[in-house]
Amino acid sequence: MRGTAVTYTGHAPPEARADPPAATGGRRPPPRPAARRSVANRENLAGYLFMSPWIAGFLLLTAGPMAASLYFAFTDYNLFDAPQWVGLKNFTDMFADPRWQKSVEVTVKYVLIGTPLKLVAALGVALLLAQSRRGQSFYRAAFYAPSLIGASVSVAIVWRAIFTEDAVVDRAQRLFGMNVGGWVGDPDWILYALVALTVWQFGAPMVIFLAGLKQVPRELYEAAEMDGAGPWRRFWNITLPMISPVLFFNVLLETIHSFQIFGSAYILGGQGNPCGPADATLVYTCYLYQQGFENSRMGFASAMAWMLLIAVGLVTAVLFRSQKRWVHYEENAR
After folding, report:
1. What single string gives the DSSP state of each residue in 260-295?
2. Where is the composition biased (Low complexity) (predicted)?
Protein backbone atom coordinates (compact mmCIF):
# COMPACT_ATOMS: atom_id res chain seq x y z
CA MET A 1 0.00 0.00 0.00
CA ARG A 2 1.36 3.42 -0.95
CA GLY A 3 2.76 5.43 1.93
CA THR A 4 3.14 2.47 4.26
CA ALA A 5 6.62 1.99 5.71
CA VAL A 6 8.04 -1.45 6.33
CA THR A 7 10.27 -1.67 9.38
CA TYR A 8 12.80 -4.56 9.70
CA THR A 9 13.21 -5.63 13.31
CA GLY A 10 15.96 -8.21 12.75
CA HIS A 11 13.74 -11.23 13.61
CA ALA A 12 12.22 -13.41 10.91
CA PRO A 13 8.60 -14.47 11.36
CA PRO A 14 7.94 -18.10 12.42
CA GLU A 15 6.90 -19.05 8.91
CA ALA A 16 10.21 -17.88 7.55
CA ARG A 17 12.26 -19.65 10.23
CA ALA A 18 10.61 -23.08 9.65
CA ASP A 19 12.09 -25.33 6.99
CA PRO A 20 9.93 -25.36 3.91
CA PRO A 21 8.18 -28.65 3.18
CA ALA A 22 10.18 -29.10 -0.02
CA ALA A 23 13.47 -29.00 1.88
CA THR A 24 12.58 -31.91 4.25
CA GLY A 25 10.45 -33.93 1.88
CA GLY A 26 7.39 -33.49 4.11
CA ARG A 27 8.94 -35.68 6.90
CA ARG A 28 9.76 -34.89 10.48
CA PRO A 29 13.44 -34.90 11.40
CA PRO A 30 14.60 -38.20 12.99
CA PRO A 31 14.75 -38.39 16.79
CA ARG A 32 18.00 -37.73 18.52
CA PRO A 33 20.28 -40.71 19.45
CA ALA A 34 19.59 -40.17 23.16
CA ALA A 35 15.83 -40.41 22.57
CA ARG A 36 16.26 -43.58 20.51
CA ARG A 37 18.34 -45.19 23.26
CA SER A 38 15.73 -44.30 25.87
CA VAL A 39 12.94 -45.91 23.83
CA ALA A 40 15.07 -49.04 23.18
CA ASN A 41 15.91 -49.35 26.89
CA ARG A 42 12.24 -49.17 27.85
CA GLU A 43 11.35 -51.82 25.29
CA ASN A 44 14.18 -54.10 26.46
CA LEU A 45 13.10 -53.67 30.07
CA ALA A 46 9.53 -54.64 29.19
CA GLY A 47 10.78 -57.68 27.31
CA TYR A 48 12.93 -58.84 30.22
CA LEU A 49 10.02 -58.38 32.63
CA PHE A 50 7.81 -60.60 30.49
CA MET A 51 10.62 -63.18 30.24
CA SER A 52 11.50 -63.07 33.93
CA PRO A 53 9.27 -66.05 34.95
CA TRP A 54 10.92 -68.24 32.31
CA ILE A 55 14.41 -66.98 33.19
CA ALA A 56 13.82 -67.64 36.89
CA GLY A 57 12.45 -71.12 36.15
CA PHE A 58 15.38 -71.93 33.89
CA LEU A 59 17.97 -70.81 36.44
CA LEU A 60 16.31 -72.45 39.44
CA LEU A 61 14.92 -75.63 37.88
CA THR A 62 17.28 -76.39 34.98
CA ALA A 63 20.62 -74.58 34.99
CA GLY A 64 21.05 -74.71 38.77
CA PRO A 65 20.36 -78.46 39.14
CA MET A 66 22.57 -79.20 36.13
CA ALA A 67 25.49 -77.31 37.65
CA ALA A 68 24.94 -79.08 41.00
CA SER A 69 24.77 -82.45 39.24
CA LEU A 70 28.04 -81.77 37.45
CA TYR A 71 29.70 -81.03 40.78
CA PHE A 72 28.18 -84.09 42.47
CA ALA A 73 29.48 -86.30 39.62
CA PHE A 74 32.99 -85.80 41.03
CA THR A 75 32.01 -86.33 44.67
CA ASP A 76 30.92 -89.07 47.04
CA TYR A 77 27.44 -87.85 47.99
CA ASN A 78 24.68 -89.85 49.69
CA LEU A 79 21.98 -87.14 50.10
CA PHE A 80 22.55 -86.97 53.87
CA ASP A 81 26.20 -86.10 54.42
CA ALA A 82 28.27 -83.35 52.87
CA PRO A 83 29.71 -84.32 49.47
CA GLN A 84 33.35 -85.40 49.45
CA TRP A 85 35.48 -84.73 46.37
CA VAL A 86 36.70 -87.98 44.76
CA GLY A 87 37.63 -86.82 41.28
CA LEU A 88 37.07 -89.37 38.51
CA LYS A 89 36.37 -92.29 40.86
CA ASN A 90 32.65 -92.39 40.01
CA PHE A 91 33.43 -92.69 36.31
CA THR A 92 36.06 -95.39 36.75
CA ASP A 93 33.71 -97.36 39.03
CA MET A 94 30.95 -96.94 36.47
CA PHE A 95 32.93 -98.38 33.58
CA ALA A 96 33.97 -101.36 35.74
CA ASP A 97 30.42 -102.06 36.98
CA PRO A 98 28.86 -105.13 35.25
CA ARG A 99 25.31 -103.89 35.92
CA TRP A 100 26.13 -100.54 34.31
CA GLN A 101 27.37 -102.41 31.25
CA LYS A 102 24.18 -104.45 31.31
CA SER A 103 22.08 -101.28 31.43
CA VAL A 104 23.90 -99.88 28.41
CA GLU A 105 23.34 -103.14 26.52
CA VAL A 106 19.62 -103.25 27.35
CA THR A 107 19.14 -99.58 26.45
CA VAL A 108 20.90 -99.87 23.09
CA LYS A 109 18.89 -102.99 22.26
CA TYR A 110 15.65 -101.25 23.18
CA VAL A 111 16.50 -98.16 21.11
CA LEU A 112 17.52 -100.18 18.04
CA ILE A 113 14.36 -102.31 18.13
CA GLY A 114 11.68 -100.03 19.53
CA THR A 115 12.42 -96.80 17.65
CA PRO A 116 12.33 -98.21 14.08
CA LEU A 117 9.21 -100.30 14.78
CA LYS A 118 7.42 -97.29 16.24
CA LEU A 119 8.30 -95.11 13.26
CA VAL A 120 7.27 -97.80 10.76
CA ALA A 121 3.90 -98.17 12.50
CA ALA A 122 3.44 -94.40 12.60
CA LEU A 123 4.27 -93.96 8.92
CA GLY A 124 2.09 -96.89 7.85
CA VAL A 125 -0.96 -95.60 9.67
CA ALA A 126 -0.27 -92.04 8.47
CA LEU A 127 -0.30 -93.27 4.86
CA LEU A 128 -3.70 -94.87 5.45
CA LEU A 129 -5.15 -91.83 7.19
CA ALA A 130 -3.80 -89.43 4.55
CA GLN A 131 -6.42 -90.78 2.14
CA SER A 132 -9.89 -89.25 2.20
CA ARG A 133 -12.38 -91.55 3.88
CA ARG A 134 -15.43 -91.39 6.12
CA GLY A 135 -14.77 -90.98 9.83
CA GLN A 136 -11.24 -89.76 9.20
CA SER A 137 -11.23 -87.41 12.19
CA PHE A 138 -12.37 -90.20 14.51
CA TYR A 139 -9.62 -92.56 13.35
CA ARG A 140 -6.97 -89.90 13.77
CA ALA A 141 -8.09 -89.16 17.31
CA ALA A 142 -8.32 -92.87 18.14
CA PHE A 143 -4.79 -93.60 16.93
CA TYR A 144 -3.39 -90.52 18.65
CA ALA A 145 -4.98 -91.23 22.04
CA PRO A 146 -2.37 -93.82 23.21
CA SER A 147 0.32 -91.14 22.97
CA LEU A 148 -1.52 -89.13 25.60
CA ILE A 149 -2.00 -91.94 28.13
CA GLY A 150 0.70 -94.45 27.19
CA ALA A 151 3.33 -93.02 29.52
CA SER A 152 1.08 -93.13 32.60
CA VAL A 153 1.66 -95.52 35.48
CA SER A 154 -1.85 -96.97 35.22
CA VAL A 155 -1.35 -98.00 31.58
CA ALA A 156 1.96 -99.65 32.44
CA ILE A 157 0.24 -101.64 35.20
CA VAL A 158 -2.53 -102.72 32.82
CA TRP A 159 0.08 -103.64 30.20
CA ARG A 160 1.88 -105.80 32.75
CA ALA A 161 -1.39 -107.57 33.56
CA ILE A 162 -2.03 -108.25 29.87
CA PHE A 163 1.36 -109.92 29.40
CA THR A 164 1.40 -112.03 32.57
CA GLU A 165 1.03 -115.80 32.47
CA ASP A 166 -2.46 -117.09 31.58
CA ALA A 167 -3.54 -113.56 30.59
CA VAL A 168 -4.92 -112.31 27.27
CA VAL A 169 -1.68 -112.50 25.29
CA ASP A 170 -0.73 -115.88 26.70
CA ARG A 171 -4.12 -117.37 25.80
CA ALA A 172 -3.98 -115.90 22.29
CA GLN A 173 -0.57 -117.49 21.75
CA ARG A 174 -1.89 -120.90 22.72
CA LEU A 175 -4.43 -120.71 19.91
CA PHE A 176 -1.51 -120.69 17.48
CA GLY A 177 0.39 -123.44 19.25
CA MET A 178 2.83 -121.10 21.04
CA ASN A 179 3.49 -121.86 24.69
CA VAL A 180 5.70 -118.95 25.67
CA GLY A 181 3.98 -118.19 28.95
CA GLY A 182 3.89 -114.75 30.53
CA TRP A 183 6.19 -112.31 28.84
CA VAL A 184 6.83 -110.20 31.95
CA GLY A 185 8.14 -113.19 33.88
CA ASP A 186 10.49 -114.38 31.12
CA PRO A 187 13.86 -112.59 30.78
CA ASP A 188 13.91 -113.45 27.08
CA TRP A 189 10.51 -111.85 26.35
CA ILE A 190 9.90 -109.01 28.80
CA LEU A 191 11.91 -106.51 26.78
CA TYR A 192 9.65 -107.20 23.79
CA ALA A 193 6.63 -106.45 25.95
CA LEU A 194 8.22 -103.08 26.68
CA VAL A 195 8.86 -102.57 22.95
CA ALA A 196 5.23 -103.41 22.22
CA LEU A 197 4.10 -100.75 24.69
CA THR A 198 6.37 -98.24 22.97
CA VAL A 199 5.12 -99.10 19.48
CA TRP A 200 1.52 -98.78 20.71
CA GLN A 201 2.24 -95.11 21.44
CA PHE A 202 2.92 -94.16 17.81
CA GLY A 203 0.31 -91.38 17.71
CA ALA A 204 2.66 -88.39 18.08
CA PRO A 205 5.01 -89.24 15.18
CA MET A 206 1.96 -90.31 13.15
CA VAL A 207 0.51 -86.78 13.35
CA ILE A 208 3.84 -85.31 12.23
CA PHE A 209 4.00 -87.76 9.31
CA LEU A 210 0.46 -86.77 8.35
CA ALA A 211 1.47 -83.12 8.20
CA GLY A 212 4.41 -84.01 5.97
CA LEU A 213 2.32 -86.17 3.63
CA LYS A 214 -0.14 -83.31 3.14
CA GLN A 215 2.69 -81.19 1.72
CA VAL A 216 3.63 -83.62 -1.06
CA PRO A 217 2.34 -82.21 -4.40
CA ARG A 218 -0.29 -84.43 -6.02
CA GLU A 219 1.15 -83.60 -9.45
CA LEU A 220 4.20 -85.75 -8.73
CA TYR A 221 2.06 -88.83 -8.12
CA GLU A 222 0.00 -88.16 -11.23
CA ALA A 223 3.09 -87.79 -13.39
CA ALA A 224 4.65 -90.97 -11.96
CA GLU A 225 1.43 -92.90 -12.48
CA MET A 226 1.31 -91.80 -16.11
CA ASP A 227 4.87 -93.10 -16.50
CA GLY A 228 3.75 -96.49 -15.21
CA ALA A 229 5.20 -96.30 -11.68
CA GLY A 230 3.53 -98.66 -9.22
CA PRO A 231 2.57 -97.92 -5.59
CA TRP A 232 5.89 -99.13 -4.16
CA ARG A 233 7.95 -97.15 -6.65
CA ARG A 234 5.90 -94.00 -6.00
CA PHE A 235 6.39 -94.46 -2.28
CA TRP A 236 10.15 -95.05 -2.57
CA ASN A 237 10.94 -92.39 -5.18
CA ILE A 238 8.42 -89.67 -4.28
CA THR A 239 6.95 -90.03 -0.81
CA LEU A 240 10.10 -90.85 1.15
CA PRO A 241 12.32 -88.15 -0.43
CA MET A 242 9.60 -85.51 -0.06
CA ILE A 243 8.96 -86.28 3.62
CA SER A 244 12.61 -86.96 4.49
CA PRO A 245 12.90 -83.78 6.65
CA VAL A 246 9.85 -84.91 8.64
CA LEU A 247 11.29 -88.42 8.87
CA PHE A 248 14.58 -87.04 10.16
CA PHE A 249 12.76 -84.99 12.79
CA ASN A 250 10.84 -88.04 14.00
CA VAL A 251 13.94 -90.25 14.04
CA LEU A 252 15.83 -87.66 16.09
CA LEU A 253 12.98 -87.04 18.53
CA GLU A 254 12.04 -90.68 19.07
CA THR A 255 15.66 -91.75 19.50
CA ILE A 256 16.15 -89.20 22.27
CA HIS A 257 12.89 -90.28 23.92
CA SER A 258 13.93 -93.94 23.76
CA PHE A 259 17.14 -93.22 25.67
CA GLN A 260 15.07 -91.54 28.39
CA ILE A 261 12.55 -94.33 29.02
CA PHE A 262 12.08 -95.13 32.69
CA GLY A 263 8.57 -95.48 34.12
CA SER A 264 7.32 -98.25 31.85
CA ALA A 265 10.48 -100.31 32.26
CA TYR A 266 10.46 -99.91 36.05
CA ILE A 267 6.80 -100.85 36.46
CA LEU A 268 6.85 -103.70 33.97
CA GLY A 269 9.46 -105.46 36.10
CA GLY A 270 6.97 -105.73 38.98
CA GLN A 271 7.05 -105.25 42.71
CA GLY A 272 10.15 -106.65 44.39
CA ASN A 273 11.73 -107.13 41.00
CA PRO A 274 12.14 -103.67 39.44
CA CYS A 275 13.65 -103.44 35.99
CA GLY A 276 12.67 -106.98 35.10
CA PRO A 277 13.81 -110.50 35.96
CA ALA A 278 17.55 -111.00 35.55
CA ASP A 279 17.81 -107.27 34.76
CA ALA A 280 16.08 -107.92 31.44
CA THR A 281 14.57 -104.41 31.38
CA LEU A 282 17.40 -102.69 33.25
CA VAL A 283 17.45 -99.63 31.03
CA TYR A 284 19.99 -96.92 31.78
CA THR A 285 17.63 -94.57 33.62
CA CYS A 286 16.31 -97.42 35.75
CA TYR A 287 19.79 -98.27 37.00
CA LEU A 288 20.46 -94.56 37.51
CA TYR A 289 17.35 -94.34 39.71
CA GLN A 290 18.41 -97.38 41.73
CA GLN A 291 21.87 -95.99 42.37
CA GLY A 292 20.70 -92.49 43.24
CA PHE A 293 17.55 -93.05 45.30
CA GLU A 294 17.61 -96.67 46.43
CA ASN A 295 21.34 -97.00 47.16
CA SER A 296 21.83 -93.29 48.04
CA ARG A 297 24.78 -92.99 45.67
CA MET A 298 23.86 -89.61 44.27
CA GLY A 299 27.39 -88.86 43.11
CA PHE A 300 27.51 -92.06 41.10
CA ALA A 301 24.04 -91.36 39.69
CA SER A 302 25.09 -87.84 38.69
CA ALA A 303 28.06 -89.25 36.82
CA MET A 304 25.71 -91.67 35.05
CA ALA A 305 23.40 -88.80 34.11
CA TRP A 306 26.22 -86.85 32.51
CA MET A 307 27.40 -89.91 30.60
CA LEU A 308 23.86 -90.30 29.26
CA LEU A 309 23.85 -86.66 28.21
CA ILE A 310 27.15 -87.12 26.37
CA ALA A 311 25.91 -90.31 24.68
CA VAL A 312 22.68 -88.68 23.50
CA GLY A 313 24.66 -85.68 22.27
CA LEU A 314 26.96 -87.94 20.24
CA VAL A 315 24.04 -89.84 18.73
CA THR A 316 22.36 -86.55 17.86
CA ALA A 317 25.54 -85.30 16.20
CA VAL A 318 25.81 -88.50 14.15
CA LEU A 319 22.21 -88.16 13.00
CA PHE A 320 22.74 -84.54 11.97
CA ARG A 321 25.90 -85.57 10.16
CA SER A 322 24.11 -88.35 8.29
CA GLN A 323 21.24 -86.17 7.11
CA LYS A 324 23.38 -84.80 4.28
CA ARG A 325 23.11 -88.18 2.55
CA TRP A 326 19.42 -88.96 2.83
CA VAL A 327 17.47 -85.83 3.85
CA HIS A 328 16.31 -83.72 0.91
CA TYR A 329 15.37 -80.12 1.64
CA GLU A 330 13.61 -77.81 -0.77
CA GLU A 331 16.13 -76.00 -3.00
CA ASN A 332 18.95 -77.74 -1.11
CA ALA A 333 18.36 -75.48 1.89
CA ARG A 334 19.52 -76.74 5.26
Report:
1. T--HHHHHHH-TTSTT-GGGTT--HHHHHHIIIIIS
2. 12-27
